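Entry for the shared binder. Reason: the reviewer on the internal report wants the predicted structure included alongside the sequence.
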Amino acid sequence: MRIEKVVQVATTSPLLTLQGQLQLDTESWGFNNVTIDVGLCQENCKLCSNFYKCQKCENGYLLYQNRCVVNCPIHSSECVDYEDIIPYSKYLAKGFYDMNMTIDQINTFYDTVTNPTTNFLTGQKFSFFRQKFVLGGLMVWNDAIYSKTWQILKPHYAISIRFNLTYGDEFSGNFYYKIDNQQSDAFVKPLTGGQNFIGREKEERTSHFYIYKDPHKSSQLSFEVQCTGGIGDIRQEFCAISEYFIIVHYCPPFCSNCESDKICNTWESGYSSSQCDANKYISFNSISQTYSCNSCTQIGCVTCNSLEECTQCDLVKNFQLSNGVCTCHPFYYLSGNQCLRCNQYCGNCNGSNNNCISCITEHFRYLSKNNCICQIGYYDDGINFICLPICGDLLIVEGEDCDDGNFNPFDGCHNCKYQCEETCLICIEGQCLMCIDGYDIVQNKCVLVCGDNLILYPEQCEDDNLIPYDGCFNCQFSCSQHCIDCQNGKCIQCDNQNGWYLFDDNTCQTICGDGIKVLYNEQCDDGNDNPFDYCDNCIFSDIAKKNNCEIFIQNRCMRCENGYQLEKRTNNCIKKCKENEIVIIKEICGDNNNMKYDGCYKCELSCQESCTNCKSQGCLECNVKGWKHNISKMKCETICGDGITILEYEECDDQINKNCQNCKFKCQESCDICLKGDCLKCKKGWYLNNYNQICYPQIGDLLVVGYEQCDDMNGIMNDGCYESQYQCQIVCISCYFGLCKKCQDGYIIINNKCIEISGDGIIVGQEECEDQNLIGLDGCFQQKYDCPLYCKICVKGQCLVCNQELGYQQFDIYKNICVSICGDNIKQIDEDCDDGNNIQFDGCFNCQFECDLYCIDCIQGICQQCMDGYYLNRKHNNCESICGDGIVVGNEQCDDGNKIIDDGCSDCKFQCHKYCIACVHGICVECRGIGWEINQINGQCQPLCGDGYIIDYEQCDDGNDIREDGCFECYFECQKECAKCIEGECMECGILGWDLEQGRCIPHCGDKLVVGDEECDDGNLIAFDGCYYCKYHCQDQCTDCKKGICYECKIEGWNILNHICYPVCGDGYVVQGYEQCDDGNQLQYDGCYLCAYQCEFKCTNCQMGICYECNQFGWIIDNYNKCIPICGDGIIIGNEQCDDMNNEYNDGCFQCQNVCDQYCTNCFNGICYSCQPGRFVYANVCVSFCGDGYYVPQNENCDDGNDLNNDGCNQNCQIEENFNCINTIGASSKCFYSKKPNIQINILTTNLQDYQEVEITFDQKEIY
């Protein structure tokens, strides 16, 4: 399947993804022959909106119809095509401007011609002139009429006709044109400005015609052109029309009758404007010449300019606009006519939300069978969209600083983040550079320094020495060697039981004479100081103990006499009874138990059979093979591992039996069934070796057991796991758990494997050679030796003998290639030819076919066709130039295609202009006469345009280069708005919106038509409305004015609303000319209101917002220049509620405001209607009533609800003597009798001292 696709992208770095959607493991796909052609903008375009619309061209290029061209076409004005100057214009006729016309096309420009007998001597109605077709021309037209009636079926309002008329050989007659029935004036040849191109020696002079006919609404256009009145002989002079264009200015779309492209008189049925509905676009059918509104059928498109270009997409359905196309938003897919959300893990999807076609790389997912799964080194936690790093897999991925595959927090990496131990002071990327005091760095670890006089955990002490047993050793508490209770480096108790005692220096030492022999410190200890008992000062004495001893050395018997056996414990010689039997002397004993073999059993000595010296305290010696003596237990024990199996005591012996541990049968842990040390069946993952009955790990079962590091179920070496051990390739120099992390030079890691790098120049692995290219037959191809081309014998890619039979006799040892000899006149296989010479362009050069330099079709050294400007000389097989064909080639200096002399080129040699007086190699150095200059391009004399002199072919010369002032570049030229131009002076303006003034078309300002240099035209002369005198115009306060619309007013005191600047009243800033004042508020009568001075309405003298007089009845001015009512004059005005002409508070009016008594609860207009409880209205005042049972503290001391006396509260609500009252506001007082005691004080001290004694007496008894 071949796929071709053209896409538009806006990014500078587009990404092309070719992706297959596999559904089964057996499926596969691939691609080849990928060709990508990149086109940003069009060629030579500097800035474009899309490929089809260029907005700005590169330097040296011009913008024409959204394309960049070197030169603007002839049918354009300032690079604007004639049919694009006025909207809705189309060509009716377009021709005679190049060589691309057919006879049928030419015939469409005329219906009839006149005078065929005296004209058209060539038999045609056209000819050629200056590399283009012309209507008429040399030997064709000088006295005839071309007539044509054109059909214009669609509504229009005007037409434009443009053409150039050439007066050939200075045609002496007149030229006329007729539009419908209107005949033009006669036009004669220009007085100057020509050049002889063809025909006789006279010049060809050209006039440009631009005819704008408005109105023209007829469905027919009749147009005639006529040359007449000249010399009758057509061979003497001629007329020719070129650059012939007729443009129809149609009405706007859907308009059936109009006055211009903007003014429609009658609309088609169903239309009221040229606009289509929002969801449609205007389409023009070039065949039927009709407009129509077509629906925007692009999926998701709401509004559009064309079928391909959408301008607004349906946002509700999740579409977005991109380069004129509606596409789904990222993470959405197209379903019908709407975009639905993809699966949460998809970047993009297709067809359904689970059919992913891309993944979000930031989520660390990749595509696998249409699903986005986590990348290697990440896992899905089922909660987050983003895959999380797998910490501990030895793979360092984004989000991890490191990964060492363990959970040691102090090895530089912990939880996949760089981390040193707490004692590290400076840690960089897991490497400790400095530790805290008391620690040194050892292999990236901070290790305690013992001996630095700093005690840090886990150090227990510091004595700054290495003396053992001195209380502190290696920074740990250490007591004497035989101390059994050591606390903080101080020994509390030594091993007294074994002869060690605590001394004052805190050490454990032996004491000779304590009866305890201390091994390695004492030879003997008999508990006495008798020097003659064989032991003196714990050393054997010189008195030999020779009882039955044959050899006695250093007070010890080394060998007994015959018939005696040495008892090592007592160093005594005892008598043998029989071989391997000991004489047991029965003695009476008692140990208060009935245990056998403890030394005494049933009051007789009893030891094990293996005991060779039995005493009442137990066995003293076990001098039997396979047994050893246990001193602490005083009994014999078997020696496990001595190669002797003691029945009933040992099942086996480790030295001689397999599967024996501690003299007990034991199989491996991997054994499932074990019998007497022999495994009969192994566990899963193990197999039984029948030879040695040992379980070994089963390699290749995918189970990792025992010493296995891995198990990949195959026997392939170097694949990461081999024979159940991690194994990388030999070329891997950094291998972790079977995964290669770094390879030797010449390899690259792919899927944790080292793969040879092709083309790196390093020979490794299976590579035989490396020439860093993919060229075959050069000695090395795809890292394998191959012989060079045409080599007969080669060794390891190096050619030794070339194939002479094929013509290759030479060998280039440096290039390792076989070469043929070119020029030996012998054609070899790799030679096209060999002519035995070294001459270029003779058909064969350097043994390759080669034709003449100017040959364009060469077959096997024979030229078939030459370039333009040359003819083929078949005899000599070369190309020679053609002089006179207008093409400069070869040794021609020039070729103007004529035989005219003094025109700059004659016989294909340079020749200067006839007005040149100094000519060098065809280039004029100096011209003759006033008004001439040298053309710097062609080096010929030409009239100096702009000097004010009219010479040669100049029609005019006004001394400037201003366009449309009547003369431009020395040719008559009126404004393009001029409909009738005579010798540079406009006689009539033919375009709506223009007025003729002094021979010029001036825009008519105020007609609501924007033409010429007008920026706008709103039909009025109102300033600051956006357009003033046809120029964009905003207010002076506008600081950002664009096309008459103000967007910003950044002047203090001004703001903008609806694009209009207005002063901000209330900002505290006075805008002169617009505001009298601005006090920053909207309060009336404060001196300034709505930014105008304002006093109170009663003010009779107001100046700049300040009142100086209130000359009205009842008013007076205060110290703050405010009019206030006169309170107390008996007149109620202003804000006065009353005026009782006094200043009493409780009379209903106080300070001219209605005021009631302070205890009034219902006050209206100064009249109190009710008071607080306990008070009543009297004379408009709230007064209390004594005896009503409501205690009022302000007026009463008590109120017991009656007017009785002698009950504690009298009739005047006063507390009576010897009574106390409990008062509660708003309630009745509670009074009770309480007579006060009389107190009498007597001073007992008669003399005045620092203290005095007094006596206090009461006339009442004390209560407590």
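Summary line for the report: Helices lie at 82-85, 103-107.
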